[in-house]
Automatic annotation (TrEMBL):
<dbReference type="InterPro" id="IPR036329">
    <property type="entry name" value="Aro-AA_hydroxylase_C_sf"/>
</dbReference>
<keyword id="KW-0408">Iron</keyword>
<feature type="domain" description="Biopterin-dependent aromatic amino acid hydroxylase family profile">
    <location>
        <begin position="1"/>
        <end position="298"/>
    </location>
</feature>
<feature type="binding site">
    <location>
        <position position="167"/>
    </location>
    <ligand>
        <name>Fe cation</name>
    </ligand>
</feature>
<feature type="binding site">
    <location>
        <position position="162"/>
    </location>
    <ligand>
        <name>Fe cation</name>
    </ligand>
</feature>
<dbReference type="InterPro" id="IPR019774">
    <property type="entry name" value="Aromatic-AA_hydroxylase_C"/>
</dbReference>
<dbReference type="GO" id="GO:0004505">
    <property type="term" value="F:phenylalanine 4-monooxygenase activity"/>
</dbReference>
<comment type="similarity">
    <text>Belongs to the biopterin-dependent aromatic amino acid hydroxylase family.</text>
</comment>
<keyword id="KW-0479">Metal-binding</keyword>
<dbReference type="InterPro" id="IPR036951">
    <property type="entry name" value="ArAA_hydroxylase_sf"/>
</dbReference>
<protein>
    <submittedName>
        <fullName>Phenylalanine-4-hydroxylase</fullName>
        <ecNumber>1.14.16.1</ecNumber>
    </submittedName>
</protein>
<dbReference type="Pfam" id="PF00351">
    <property type="entry name" value="Biopterin_H"/>
</dbReference>
<keyword id="KW-0560">Oxidoreductase</keyword>
<keyword id="KW-0503">Monooxygenase</keyword>
<dbReference type="InterPro" id="IPR001273">
    <property type="entry name" value="ArAA_hydroxylase"/>
</dbReference>
<feature type="binding site">
    <location>
        <position position="208"/>
    </location>
    <ligand>
        <name>Fe cation</name>
    </ligand>
</feature>
<dbReference type="GO" id="GO:0005506">
    <property type="term" value="F:iron ion binding"/>
</dbReference>
Length: 298
């Protein structure tokens, strides 16, 4: 479970400018030369972008549109069943197409009107300071590739479906958008690796994999759960603990494997107030205050 994780495939550029995405041996597309060429092509487009330029559009293939359609068709009913109300309302407000892959600039247009967020391209992993820090400015770094078509309901790395169906919809809710901005501001206040790691850890257990109590049920708001067909039906069987920032910052988690512990807010308001207050006050002294300095800096 939670194999979707945050394991980006490394991207390199050769001296002659050739861009290569290095898929892991167990990636569903590793033995498909057409998919690998496509990943290289999209990565090159994403990398060609610089701040201030228009975000490049990808000419998605019919196969890629079909992957998007398949995921939307399977996951939408599960959102009604398992996602928190704010997410469901945000999905309706953003109203992304379900019959074709949206472009990042379309996501931006929708978000601008609702919360002021914009999407910019990333070929793969973005340095932590930059990824989190730019959230303060309402900027989200998003991949543009899609998972392999042979297994449309699984991905070992965060693809456009995770970034847009998970994060994009969440960022259409004004309070969730503000929570992301607060996390970004916290990341920028931190000058130490330990401080930044605490921001990343709390982000992981809230914005990525958070759950909350609502109407007598456990519901999900984390982008990693809500974008994953396999995981969304599993989270209620996990070990559920109350929000505990010291535990979030010290618990061992493997981003590539089953994650047995989730942290639940008492309500959506509790999430916004409690986690918001944490990010608002988080700085380089936070690891010490939580008593996790040695663990966080290890
Ligand atoms: Fe994510």
């Amino acid at each position: 479970m939670f194999e979707e994780g945050q394991l980006y495939s490394p991207v390199t550029t050769a001296d002659d400018g050739t861009v290569t995405v290095h898929l892991g041996d167990d990636h569903p597309g590793v033995n498909d030369p057409d998919y690998r060429a496509r990943r290289n092509e999209i990565a090159a487009v994403s990398m060609s972008w610089s701040p201030g330029q228009p975000v490049p559009r990808i000419d998605y293939t019919e196969t890629e549109h079909e992957v998007w359609r398949t995921v939307c068709e399977h996951i939408a009913p599960l959102h009604e069943k398992y996602a928190c109300r704010a997410y469901r309302d945000a999905v309706r407000a953003l109203d992304l197409p379900r019959d074709r892959v949206p472009q990042l600039d379309e996501v931006t247009t929708g978000l601008q009107a609702l919360t002021g967020f914009s999407y910019v391209p990333a070929a793969g992993i973005v340095p932590l300071e930059e990824f989190y820090g730019s959230l303060e400015d309402g900027v989200f770094h998003s991949t543009q590739y899609l998972r392999h078509h042979a297994v449309p309901l699984y991905t070992p790395e965060p693809d456009l479906i995770h970034e847009v169906i998970g994060h994009g919809n969440l960022l259409a809710d004004p309070q969730m958008a503000e929570l992301n901005r607060l996390a970004g501001a916290a990341a920028r206040r931190c000058e130490t690796k330990a401080g930044l790691q605490v921001v990343a850890d709390v982000f992981w257990f809230t914005v990525e994999f958070g759950v909350l109590h609502e109407g007598g049920e456990l519901r999900a708001y984390g982008a990693g759960i809500l974008s994953s067909y396999g995981e969304i039906e599993e989270f209620r069987g996990m070990q559920i603990r109350p929000i505990d920032f010291a535990a979030m910052a010290t618990i061992d988690y493997d981003i590539t494997h089953y994650q047995p512990v989730l942290f639940a807010a008492e309500s959506f308001d509790h999430l916004i107030n409690d986690v918001g207050a944490f990010f608002a006050s988080c700085d380089d002294d936070t690891p010490g205050r939580l008593g996790v300095s040695s663990a966080a800096s290890a």
